[in-house]
């Protein structure tokens, strides 16, 4: 199957090695910004399974290597004997399974509250760790988005276009 290739890549198409059950995308020029500052370039491969609803990313020197890492993570998830959740101090509402590392949002009760309405939520947070519920996500100022917010927003848009058989064109949406 074909993976969607990110616009910044030098390659224009990529035939996956594995038969993924979901939307997948890849690129050979992904930039990863580190929370401590700085960045590095890497090839990446990302899968967005719907069951379970998660996001898996592999990185490597080449897209094929990144796909292998991503596939290994997916195999571990599908082989898990039963998920057991822990937060690992993660601030965006996600939990990880102790056994297979599956990352899921909304499994445990939120212990953060929306800074607009006070409702318990893990929906999203900004760079200052203020949380926003789903109803108030648009109150999050754009200047407080981190690179992952932008990456996920673009990925969700590309996935919606993919479902409709259309080409994603970010410029047309701004
Ligand atoms: Zn598990
Ligand atoms: Zn709210």
Provide a quick synopsis of the model.
By secondary structure, the chain is an alpha+beta fold. It contains two helices and ten strands; from the N terminus they run βββββαβββββα.
Question: Overview of this structure, please?
Answer:
- With 174 residues, this protein is of the alpha+beta class.
- It has helices at residues 63-78, 147-163; strands spanning 2-5, 14-15, 24-33, 39-47, 56-60, 85-86, 94-97, 103-105, 124-125, 131-132.
- Strand 6 (85-86) and strand 7 form a beta hairpin.
- It contains two helices and ten strands, in the order E-E-E-E-E-H-E-E-E-E-E-H.
- The model has no long low-confidence stretch (mean pLDDT 86).
- Helix content is 19%, strand content 25%.
- The strands form three sheets. A five-stranded mixed sheet has the order 2-1-3-4-5. The chain has a three-stranded antiparallel sheet with strand order 6-7-8, with no helix packed on it.
- The protein has a domain at 1-81.
- The chain is globular and about 45 Å long.
- The site of one zinc ion (ZN) has 6 residues, from loops.
């Amino acid at each position: 199957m074909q993976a969607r290739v990110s616009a910044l890549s030098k390659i224009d198409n990529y035939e996956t090695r594995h038969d993924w059950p979901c939307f997948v995308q890849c690129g050979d020029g992904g930039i990863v910004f580190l929370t401590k500052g700085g960045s590095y370039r890497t090839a990446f491969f990302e899968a967005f399974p719907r069951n379970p609803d998660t996001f898996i990313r592999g990185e490597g020197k080449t897209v094929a290597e990144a796909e292998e890492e991503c596939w290994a993570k997916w195999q571990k998830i599908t082989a898990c004997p039963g998920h057991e959740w822990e937060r690992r101090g993660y601030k965006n509402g996600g939990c990880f399974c102790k056994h297979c590392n599956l990352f899921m949002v909304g499994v445990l009760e939120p212990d953060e509250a929306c800074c607009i309405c006070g409702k318990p939520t893990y929906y999203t947070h900004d760079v200052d760790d203020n949380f926003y519920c789903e109803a108030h996500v648009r109150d999050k100022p754009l200047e407080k988005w981190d690179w992952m917010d932008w990456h996920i927003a673009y990925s969700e848009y590309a996935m919606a276009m993919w479902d409709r058989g259309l080409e994603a064109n970010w410029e047309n949406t701004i």
